[in-house]
């Protein structure tokens, strides 16, 4: 398992773009540090059939291995992420171009 965190300042939006998949690892996210009224649009699902979650302060999302990983926020926010799976090479990340998301 790998853990990390990312902090975005006011004016920053995307935490990951292009979206990506990796078939052998799942990711989980815990978002925090948002002011009232701010949030993150967390994108997930298969690239050809995406879904979205509106995440508020101190809420989490779990993306399975087959799901895209991407998100965009309103205002400053931080998230801790965890990645777990069966490999340690991390060469299976496949970007998904914006034009291919549906």
- The level 1 CATH classification is Mainly Beta
CATH topology term? Jelly Rolls
Number of helices: 0
What class would the helix/strand composition place it in? mainly beta
Q: Record the strand order, biggest sheet.
A: 5-4-7-2-9
Q: Using DSSP, what is the number of strands? A: 9
Let me know the average pLDDT. Answer: 88
Helix content: under 10%
Beta-strand fraction estimate: over 45%
> What would you give as the CATH superfamily?
Jelly Rolls
Q: pLDDT below 50 for ≥5 consecutive residues: which ranges?
A: none
The coarse silhouette is globular
Major beta sheet summary: 5 strands, antiparallel
N→C terminal distance: 30 Å
Number of domains: 1
Order of helices and strands: EEEEEEEEE
Examine the secondary-structure arrangement and name the CATH architecture: Sandwich
Report the C-alpha radius of gyration, rounded: 13 Å
């Amino acid at each position: 398992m790998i853990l990390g965190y990312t902090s975005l300042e006011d004016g920053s939006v995307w935490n990951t773009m292009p979206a990506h998949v990796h078939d052998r690892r799942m990711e989980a996210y815990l978002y925090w540090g948002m002011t009232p009224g701010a949030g993150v649009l967390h994108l997930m699902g298969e690239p050809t059939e995406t879904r979205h979650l509106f995440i508020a302060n101190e809420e989490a999302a779990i993306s399975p291995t087959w799901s895209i990983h991407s998100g965009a926020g309103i205002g400053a926010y931080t998230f801790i992420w965890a990645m777990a799976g069966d490999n340690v090479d991390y060469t299976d990340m496949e970007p998904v171009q914006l034009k291919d998301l549906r």
